[in-house]
Amino acid sequence: MSKKRTAHIISHTHWDREWYLPYEKHHMLLIQLMDTLLHTLERDPEFKSFYLDGQTIILEDYLQVRPEKKEQLEAFIREGRIHIGPWYILQDAFLTSSEANLRNLLIGHQDAARYGTITKVGYFPDTFGNMGQAPQILRQAGIDNAMFGRGVKPTGFNNTVSDSDYESSFSELLWEGPDGSRVVGILFANWYCNGMEVPTDEKEAKEYWERKLADAEKYASTGELLFMNGCDHQPIQQDLSEAIRTAQKLFPDTDFVHSNVTDYLQAVNRSVDRELSVVKGELRSQRTDGWSTLVNTASARIYLKQMNQQGQALLEKVAEPLASFAHLLGKEYPHHLFTYAWKTLMQNHPHDSICGCSVDEVHREMLARFDKSRHVTETIVDDSKRVIAEAVDTSVFARMGAEARPLVVFNMTGWDRTGVVTVELDAERLYFRDGFPLDEMSSRMQAFDVSGRTLVDAEGRAVPFTMQDLGLQFGYDLPDDKFRQPYMCRRVSLTFEAQNVPALGVASYAWLKLAQPASSPAADAASLLNGERVMENGLLRVEIAEDGSLTVTDKQTGRTFRDLGVYENTGDIGNEYMYKQPNGETTLTTKGLQADIRVVEDTPYRATVEIVHEWSVPASGDAVFEQEKRELVYFPHRKGQRVKDMVPLTIRTQVSLSRSGRGVELQASFNNQAKDHRLRALFPTDVETAVHRADSIFEIATRDNEPAAEWENPSNAQHQQAFVDVSGAGAGLTVANLGLQEYEVLRDGRNTIAVTLLRSVSELGDWGLFPTPEAQCLGEQTVRLEIIPHSGDGSASGAFAEAYLFQVPWTVSQTGVHGGSIASGYAPYRWEGDALAFSSMKVSEASGDLMLRWFNMEAAGTELGLHSARGAESVYKSNVLEEAGPLVSEGPSLTLPVGPYEIVTLGIKHK
User: Fold this and answer.
1) Domain 392-519 shares a fold with domain 828-910
2) Which DSSP letter does residue 332 get?
3) Would you state the pLDDT for residue 519?
4) pTM
5) What is the rounded CA–CA span in Å between residue 539 and residue 661?
6) Is the domain 392-519 a CATH 2.60.40.2210 member?
7) Domain map of the chain by residue range?
8) Fewer CB in a 10 Å sphere around the end CB: N or C, the chain?
9) pLDDT (average), residues 316-345
10) What contacts 24+ positions apart, CB below 8 Å, involve 595-602?
11) What is the pLDDT of residues 737-775, one digit of tens each?
12) Among 577, 591, 565, which residue's Cα sits nearest to residue 713?
């Protein structure tokens, strides 16, 4: 008689690199685990295989301490007894950028391939919600499945039809992305530890398996039952072979197999004989009570998210395209440096790291990693921009005047760009090698005249600017062929508006003494101010009320948005994972609070008004709250309040409007001395709509303003990447951010966008009491936002593009007067396409080809046009792993259809 069912027992460990212990303490446990694993595989041939949690960094971490084990480790991998990949680390999908998610997959594949094997499974065991574009990304990577633990509500086999996009009748399902891509999904309905610690004693084993088999069959659509033999930092079960023999003896109608993820997935695919539920898009536990979604990790230790945003933007939006541009000019592309920078950054991307939900020691170490990755990236940027700047023909400036100090502005975004830039220039230098006494060098530099100069563009037009004399400065060069070259210099800082710098291109300027008057100015010299409380350009009017709130009028639509930028403060008696406001607490706001308002910048290119709120908030949570923490009271049930004592919270907000600005920029700074609280900025939209959109991973996700009926949590906070948008007929408001990844659209009758600026908490949360005093985030904080009104269509109006531009810093380089192969205004490629967002430009390590990527923000198909300034080139369609696909063009221009929500990558053969 054939077996009725198969119990697939998969040995694994879920390895959080750092969490409730600092990294090195977890690291030592990993060494012990891996030593035990190799020993077990060596001595027990019946211990068939082990899955290394889908992340190749485990191999690096182990071999760092045990390099002598590499040969043995590699042998077991090649034999198929240790399964590795496909990721480098198990990231938090929503708190890492689109490109970071792809680098994680690409580098994981590269590392695994060195061992001769890649486990092709979309493994997301404990990701805090799953991104909607995962099915498309996985499909492009040749992966037709996903295994995950969160985001879908299992209903059990008695429910033959699930009643929403976020429920499944079975643990097996179909997961569909917004573009229509589908993968077979395996939900860990009984979690990824449902087969841990299998007994060898017959009595214990009988009770264990009766319960476990029934639990699995409750959700399984086939007789292929999954049992994950391991858990968080779970040691190897060394007697598993004996335990399996015991189980087989007790349950002869079941085939107990020491399996692996690949064999299990193949068995499921062979056995499915009924219709599976289809779940669609983002999986964020929408059909739950809302108390345990872990979404508030988006606001735990916001300083980490800000540093991550800076590091990601510098790598993917500045360094990679700059290095690609320099590569087109003949410079070697530094693949090894990029891999090192990305790996160092991604070591901060696991869900317990970037989420800010670990002990304090973990997050202290993250700061050093952020700095290390940034230092490598800045080196790549400096080397690349120097090569490009030296290729720009600046000889024209020698004919315009004397003592020309040329500079090159780089726009490495995917859109033509106008904006305010600041650059430090060395007006004059004296090198130590020239033999001048130090006092003479200093006096000559201090005496150098920096007055009477003009900033001009490459057409000779005067550009309004402001100069700050930075005085005497020390500097040095590090030549490739000589010892370091120190110098003294006279340095100045110039600020001006760079206009219409082409996408992925350059523009040149020079600061010089004019030989004759310049042609008409490149920008109007009028002020943007109308008194101290009104700023206005051709697109926007900004009025500042006595309480510091803003009224912004979109001149193109006539729509006015009121009460923008009010601050809100509440208590928070939750933890690093979840926010909880004290019951019955009155929310505090700055609405009606008199503010000090003054102009701090009035130039032809930008106006800035400073708003100062002298505010007070409760000092901390009370004694009841402290007792509840010690007693491990589940956070939704806590009764604690905030104390009556107040501490100052002075918020200094700078509101800026540039001459060509499409949005109003806000920078808020404050010294946080309060504990156990949350601070948000409020942006009422007064737009009637039941949904809103938020920037996510290769997707502008549409989300409901009102949660599902099961939702009990008063808060409905969500994740965002670059922005959130509320739009209706004829008007919309986009609020962009830098590293502020938590927002909520309030159910207040005004569809107010609330962006979290700070959340101060005192404990990790989860399974015990782990104090985290540094999660209170005491001290100086600075946040940045941009308010972008538009016509109601964020992509067609350009509001979404403006929000993406806000993420990317300008790059500027001083250079000399010289000839060159490219002119000001040059860009190697130009593109167009309605609803397309540019994502990346880099060079493939495998092929050496240039890779360009976009994604379609909308549900309708569109076309991508690409034009090369370099002449005819071979262009093919690639995938997220940079593998060559069909040829699409061999000319200088191409037009390519792009499907709804499609992620499209083009490879260009470098000539």
Assistant:
1) yes
2) P
3) 65
4) 0.96
5) 8
6) yes
7) 5-288, 392-519, 535-807, 828-910
8) N
9) 98
10) 595/546, 595/547, 595/548, 597/532, 597/533, 597/544, 597/546, 597/548, 598/532, 599/529, 599/532, 600/654, 601/656, 602/527, 602/528, 602/529
11) 999 999 999 999 999 999 999 999 999 999 999 999 999
12) 577
Tell me, what's the pLDDT at 525?
73
In whole numbers, what is the pLDDT of the chain averaged over residues? 96
- Cα–Cα distance list, 843 to 319, 759, 897 (Å): 11, 39, 23
Give the confidence band of 160 by pLDDT, cuts at 50, 70, 90.
very low
Contact criterion met (CB below 8 Å) for 195 and 10: yes
5-288 falls under which CATH superfamily? Glycoside hydrolase 38, N terminal domain (3.20.110.10)
Q: List, in sequence order, every residue forming a beta bridge with 468; answer none if it has no partner.
A: 493
The beta strand positions in 387-484, using DSSP E, are 401-411, 417-431, 454-457, 465-477
Count of residues in the chain:
911
Longest dimension (CA), the chain: 100
Rounded-to-integer distance, Cα 7 and Cα 742, Å: 41
pLDDT at 163 > cutoff 70: no
417 φ/ψ sector (left φ>0, alpha ψ -120 to 50, else beta): beta
The class of domain 535-807 in CATH terms is: mainly beta
| Residues 276, 174: Cα–Cα separation, whole Å | 6
As given in the structure block, the two tokens for residue 145 are: 């499945």
Task: Say how far apart CA 439 and CA 444 lie, in whole Å.
Answer: 9
Question: How confident is the model at residue 911, as a pLDDT?
Answer: 64
Catalytic residue IDs: 126
Q: How far apart are CA 671 and CA 692, in angstroms?
A: 32
Query: For 831-862, what is each residue's pLDDT tens digit?
Result: 999 999 999 999 999 999 999 999 999 999 99
pLDDT digits (tens, 9 = 90+) for 663-697: 999 999 999 999 999 999 999 999 999 999 999 99
Task: Examine the pLDDT at 706 and tell me if it is beyond 70.
Answer: yes
Amino acid at 207: E
Mean per-residue pLDDT for 390-396? 98
Q: How far apart are CA 271 and CA 121, in angstroms?
A: 18
